[in-house]
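thread: overnight batch results

M.L. [08:02]
morning all. the overnight job finished for the chain we discussed friday. pasting input first so we're all looking at the same thing
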Amino acid sequence: MKVVEGVRAGSELTFVNRRFTHAAVWARARLAELEAGFTIEKAQVEALKARLFARLRRRWMASGALTARPYSRGLLRFLGRHFARGSEPGLFAIR
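M.L. [08:03]
and the structure it wrote out:
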C-alpha cells in the first residue's frame, strides 16, 4: 500500500523511484563485474584446452590415431605379421 500512498504523496513516490534506480545501478555494475570475470575465466579455460590438446595431439599422431586411412591398424598389423608382408595394402583397403 505504500506505493499507492506514494502516488498520492509525490515525495514518497520519489523515494521509491530513487531506491529502485539505485538498485538497478548496483545490479548493472555487479553484472558488469561478473561478465568481466567470466570472460577472463573463459579465456583461461580455452588456453588450458589448447595446451592439453597440443600434448594429446603429439601422442595421437605418434600412435596414428589422427591419420586418415581407409584400412584399420589392426588389419595392417595382422597382415604384416602373417601373410601380406610384401603386398600392397591398398588391395585390402575398406571402401
